[in-house]
Design a protein that fits this description.
Structural class of chain A: mainly alpha
Number of helices of chain C: 15
Helix content of chain C: 25-40%
Distance between the termini of chain A: 9 Å
Largest sheet of chain A: none
Shape of chain C: globular
CATH topology of the largest domain in chain A: MetI-like fold
Radius of gyration of chain A: 24 Å
Oligomer: heterotrimer
Helix content of chain A: over 70%
CATH architecture of the largest domain in chain A: Orthogonal Bundle
Order of helices and strands of chain A: HHHHHHHHHHHH
Strand content of chain C: 15-25%
Shape of chain A: elongated
Mean pLDDT of chain A: 78
Strand content of chain A: under 5%
Largest interface: A-B, 58 and 53 residues
CATH superfamily of the largest domain in chain A: MetI-like
Number of helices of chain A: 12
Chains: A mainly alpha (308), B mainly alpha (316), C alpha+beta (527)
CATH class of the largest domain in chain A: Mainly Alpha
């Protein structure tokens, strides 16, 4: 509970930052709204209707007041509540994040364990090489190469787009595979590395030797003892990695044209849609804080010695 | 993506803890240990080459990277310029082709090395300088600590890339803005590291002794605390360099990077991506330089960390 | 739990069956289109954004419309009469016009619609200066009484591009023009499916089955708007490469604005057709700020004019000569008012002349702040070319890159360039927006009332006023010629060349794609 309460001032700081940042930078939503051929008079009129001519402190007061009542405001462009816009975009982003996590765990943990088990062999070196490489190639380059190969040359996947789960599972997952692989490259690099390291550490412990001495097969030792004890650091990294995932989502969604929160953010920033930018950043930060809180709680589940 | 530098740092040390422990046991001098670490040697060598390329850019057979030539746009690598070049020479060959304005991609990639390294190094330098000062203050001035750490927690909670996108695209695009925008999300992590070092050192008997004999605060900081931060900050700085170069490329990709007039690997790729299928050279060459450099910096970071400070992750 | 199971199953099965039954039909007859941008604002009067205009053509209808020869034809209007003194226009609406909710379109809807548009649009404002009164005679007839004869009444009501005088229901049209409308009912050939609108992603229009099209063959927005598909879906795809790939793969049917550099990919595909539907194309505009040095000096403006040339701009942005044309006519080559008079200086760079003029004017090397947009594909390369040519002509320049939205905000600032203002920017206009000196914003030289750049010239304003009052086409053309000459003398702006961008569509599936300054989605059939 104390930890939960501690998140409130953090989110308050985030809100304040974002608000000040937007108001202190140039760029005028009114000019954007008026259109490419809008006249100076039209722009002045729009500024007035949006309340942008009020003093900054008054604008801040109004926004904070609404925020406390759970009202994120209305988009300048779509004339819709930001909450509604965000809800429309949640499914694709969550779906992308989950499939990415699934792919990552399915790939990274086994190769990490194998690398640890075959410590020092060429297999281990390959895994380690990949893990550094995965960190060094920008997400969009990976995306383009995958599209070029698997969508255009081999025609295995659609080039772009997103289908809702409601439209059927196959079309849904079919369109998610390439983006998820793209996004998971960097993540696999990270988790494979940490898995290998944690398992390696655990393999040196006495009770593992005992387990081997008892004549338990490799498979059982690795899975039941080593991996289980390596779980804490792995989970930690998945938690911190959420921020990384959010960054990756922004880029991946624009490469594959997925109508998720990442693209909403970029569009809102480029269009100076202040209420939407404020809300989306707030939501992302909230999710980040919340997930890290959950991760902390998971520790005490995985390792009863840790308590909060 | 600034989160990247943190993650790299957290995970790197775990990898070859065993190897570094061996090295430490041999009690060699720091330089000898560094020279024995493969990662440091390879990463350092590649970085040295890149630095040379950056410094020597004008002498590597380049032309003005901003020189446009609309009649020679979108040419494949190896195309020979049959007109007279801007500097009056004949028979110029576009080694890496040209971009949509007819600029020489080879020259842009070579000059881009300069800018990308400037971005990487400046971000590392700035965030460490700011983080060091704020971290020291936070660790020593107790009444300020609470406030500073709340602000830092707030900054940390905003995903770095979103913060950078917002900062750059909302203010005017320029080299300085981009550097600043990538720096800001990095700062809190440095602050946390420095603060934790300060807090742990405060408890050391020799520091308590120094306090009790009335050593003044600035002297205390300089004599006892700063030296202890050097190794971890060098390691962290290396990772920040790598992540800053990548973040710059991503900002450019999203259209909020350094103005296209100034070539960086990121914006060469950003401009080239529209024509990726027809003219992949504008993505492949800068992409190669970028990947190799970041790889080298990361290896250097891993190596430095194993050698200098194997227990770093415990402090984070 | 168990007793409920069969019911749940049955309901599930029904849902599935329903989905299966409706899916194939809509899948076949839905036109999937990638437009040039997102639809953001659903009020085509409130903003001049082209996406809102395109939305307007789907949902609303117009009184008059222009055809491919830029001649004006009645659209919602059945017939009209002009009194002998040219002061009273009497319009009669076609029978059977209805809003999407079934109620009839009446004169009481039309008048406030014209008024709302007339308070916002530049050509509408000019029209309103002449209008003394508008009165409904009966449900289908209304009159417009002028203070003095005006030559552009029906031309204004047929204005093809932003802001288009769309007719809206009276209650909607009563919204002040400073506020956005919040209803989506029109009388046009498509119905906006607001329930399924996902802002920033998809916009869905369904066929308006009650729409009564005219019997004439369609030409631009005139003639019969017969919808031959069940629905049109606008998809927002940010990445052009992705859009082109999806067209080749058949995931979409139509791209409104594929970048010229990507056309080679499509040219090689036998299932894809490229068609220039807008034969007049578009024109680049080089705009100078008259408020601040050095461009407050006409000689230095002339020097800039001498430095630039159309070919460099178009080579660097369009590339393929099949899609651009060097053209001295400011009112668009191929249009009624096209003339070369006084304006061929933009065809060739004359750096010596520029340097000479700069010397005479005593140019002190003040850097010219050029704003370069970096995220609107066709505009990206204009800035660097302008910089290169101005520098060769003796100018010192400061090229500042920014995204288009920042540019749009900054061009509205009157401050000195060193305090957030600017000297030069470049943009592009659809030909349909600049066919005469009243609709083309660039010619307005009314100082503070002028478009960004704020040129100030009484002679120009007098000429434009004379043009508006003139009702004889031949004399109008003479005045337009003088306006063009004057525009070049005082350098309100320069024309950076005429260019064309085809639409790309699946020729194996679509038929009947119409020409026009806007992509119209009636008349298209899908196999």
């Amino acid at each position: 509970m104390r930890r939960l309460a501690a998140t409130i001032p953090v989110l308050g700081m985030v809100a304040l930052f974002v608000f000040l940042m937007l108001r202190m930078t140039p760029g005028d939503p009114a000019a954007v709204l008026a259109g490419d051929n809008g006249t100076p008079q039209q722009i002045a009129e729009i500024r007035e209707t949006l309340g942008l001519d009020e003093p900054i402190l008054v604008q801040l007061g109004i926004w904070f007041g609404d925020l406390l009542q759970g009202d994120l405001g209305q988009s300048y462009f779509f004339k819709k509540d930001v909450t509604e816009l965000i809800l429309l975009r949640v499914e694709p982003t969550v779906a992308l994040a989950i499939t990415t996590l699934v792919i990552t765990v399915l790939v990274a943990v086994p190769i990490g364990v194998i690398a640890a088990y075959r410590h020092g062999t060429w297999l281990d070196r390959c895994v380690m090489g990949f893990s550094v490489f995965g960190f060094s190639v920008p997400v969009f380059v990976v995306g383009y190469i995958l599209i070029y190969l698997f969508a255009m040359q081999f025609k295995m996947f659609p080039v772009q787009g997103y289908k809702e789960l409601a439209d059927g599972f196959w079309p849904f997952i079919h369109r998610l595979i390439l983006p998820s692989i793209t996004l998971s490259v960097i993540y696999i690099a990270l988790i494979a590395r940490i898995t290998r390291a944690s398992v390696l550490e655990v393999l040196g412990e006495d009770y593992i030797r005992t387990a081997y001495a008892k004549g338990l097969p490799n498979r059982v030792v690795l899975l039941r003892h080593a991996l289980r004890n390596a779980a804490v650091p792995i989970v930690t990294v998945i938690g911190i990695g959420v921020a990384l995932l959010i960054s990756g989502v922004v880029v991946t969604e624009s490469v594959y044209n997925i109508p998720g929160l990442g693209r909403l953010t970029v569009d809102a920033v480029l269009g100076r849609d202040y209420p939407t930018i404020q809300a989306v950043i707030l939501v992302f930060s909230g999710v980040y804080v919340l997930i890290n809180l959950l991760i902390d709680l998971t520790y005490s589940f995985l390792d009863p010695r840790i308590r909060y | 993506m600034s989160d990247l530098s943190e993650l790299r740092q957290q995970t790197a040390g775990l990898v070859d803890a065993a190897a570094s422990a061996d090295a430490a046991a041999r009690k060699l001098s720091i330089w000898q240990r560094l020279a024995r670490n493969q990662s440091v040697v390879i990463g350092g060598a590649v970085m040295a080459v890149m630095l040379l390329v950056a410094i020597m850019a004008p002498f590597l057979g380049t032309m003005d990277p901003a020189e446009i030539n609309p009649a020679w746009r979108n040419k494949v690598p190896g195309t020979e310029l049959t007109d007279t070049a801007a500097d009056g020479s004949q028979g110029w060959v576009y080694r890496m082709g040209t971009d949509t304005l007819g600029r020489d991609t080879y020259s842009r990639v070579i000059y881009g090395t300069r800018v990308s390294l400037i971005v990487g190094l400046s971000v590392a330098g700035l965030s460490i300088a700011i983080g060091l000062v704020v971290g020291l203050i936070s660790g020593y001035v107790r009444w300020l600590d609470g406030i500073i750490m709340r602000v830092m927690d707030g900054l940390m909670a905003i995903p770095g890339i979103l913060l950078a996108i917002a900062l750059v695209s909302l203010s005017s695009a320029g080299l300085d803005t981009v550097i600043l925008a990538i720096t800001i999300p990095e700062v809190p992590r440095v602050v946390r590291l420095v603060r934790s070092i300060v807090l742990s050192i405060r408890e050391e008997p020799y520091v308590e002794a120094a306090i009790s004999v009335g050593t003044r605060l600035p002297l205390l900081l300089i004599r006892h605390v700063l030296p202890n931060t050097v190794a971890p900050l060098i390691v962290m700085g290396t990772y920040i360099v790598a992540s800053a170069i990548l973040v710059e490329a991503i900002l450019s990709f999203l259209g909020v990077g350094i103005p296209p007039e100034i070539p960086t690997w990121g914006n060469i790729m950003a401009e080239g991506r529209l024509l990726f299928r027809i003219f992949p050279h504008n993505i492949l060459f800068p992409g190669l330089f970028l990947a190799v450099t970041v790889l080298a910096v990361n290896m250097l970071g891993d190596g430095l960390r194993d050698t200098l400070d194997p227990r770093l992750e415990k402090r984070m | 739990m168990r007793p409920n199971l069969p019911i749940g199953l049955a309901a599930g099965a029904a849902l599935v069956a329903g989905a299966v039954m409706s899916a194939p039909a809509s899948a076949d007859q839905t036109l999937r289109v990638v437009m040039h941008s997102d639809l953001k604002i659903v009020d085509p009067i409130w903003t001049t954004a082209y996406m809102s205009r395109n939305y307007g053509y789907m949902v609303y209808d117009t009184l008059f419309a222009m055809d491919a020869n830029t001649d004006v034809h009645p659209q919602m209007v059945e017939s009209y009469e002009v009194s002998a003194d040219k002061l009273t226009y009497t319009f009669t609406l076609r029978p059977g016009l209805a809003w999407h909710d079934g109620s009839p379109v009446t004169s009481a809807d039309v008048i406030p619609s014209i008024q709302r548009w007339g308070s916002k649009d530049s050509m509408g404002q000019k029209l309103m200066e002449f209008v003394a009164d508008m009165q409904a005679v009966d449900d289908r007839t209304f009159t417009m009484v002028l203070k003095e004869p005006y030559g552009l009444v029906t031309m204004s009501l047929a204005k093809p591009s932003s802001n288009v005088p769309f007719i809206m229901p009276a209650s909607v049209a009563a919204t002040p023009s400073s506020e956005q409308i919040s209803e989506y009912i029109g009388s046009g050939p498509f119905v906006f499916d607001v329930e399924n609108w996902k802002p920033g992603d998809t916009v869905l229009f369904t066929r308006n089955d009650n729409y009564q099209p005219r019997s004439e063959t369609p030409s631009w927005a005139s003639g019969g708007k017969v919808v031959k598909v069940e629905a049109v879906e606008w998809l927002s795809v940010k990445d052009h490469q992705t859009a082109v790939n999806s067209l080749i793969e058949g995931e979409i049917d139509y791209i409104e604005s594929p970048p010229n550099d990507l056309l080679p990919l499509l040219e090689g595909d036998e299932n894809v057709a490229l068609k220039v539907i807008n034969p007049l194309g578009a024109q680049f505009m080089f705009r100078l700020n008259h408020l601040h040095p050095p461009f407050d000096n006409v000689k230095i403006r002339r020097a800039a004019l001498a430095s630039i040339n159309q070919k460099d701009f178009m080579q660097a942005t369009i590339g393929d000569p099949a899609y651009y044309k060097e053209c001295a006519a400011m009112f668009i080559c191929g249009s009624a008012l096209a003339t070369d008079a006084g304006a061929d200086i933009v065809l060739k760079s004359d750096f010596e002349l520029s340097k000479k003029l700069l010397k005479e004017a005593g140019y002190d090397g003040t850097p010219i702040v050029i704003m370069q947009s970096t995220d609107v594909n066709v505009l990206n390369n204009l800035g660097p070319v302008a910089k290169a040519n101005l520098e060769k002509g003796g100018f010192v320049t400061d090229l500042q890159a920014m995204d288009w939205q920042t540019l749009v905000a900054r061009r509205a600032k009157r401050e000195h360039p060193s305090e957030g203002g600017w000297n030069v920017f470049m943009t592009s206009w659809t030909a349909a927006d600049i066919l005469n000196p009243i609709m083309a914003a660039g010619f307005n030289a009314g100082c503070d009332a002028a478009w960004f750049g704020w040129p100030c010239d009484e002679e120009m304003e007098a000429l434009r006023d004379a043009f508006a009052r003139e009702t004889d086409a031949a004399k109008q053309k003479e005045i337009a010629e003088q306006i063009q000459i004057r525009a070049m003398e005082v350098v309100t702006h320069a024309h950076g060349g005429q260019w064309y961008r085809p639409v790309a569509y699946r020729s194996d599936r679509l038929d009947g794609v119409l020409d026009g300054p806007v992509s119209y989605f009636w008349n298209i059939t899908k196999k």
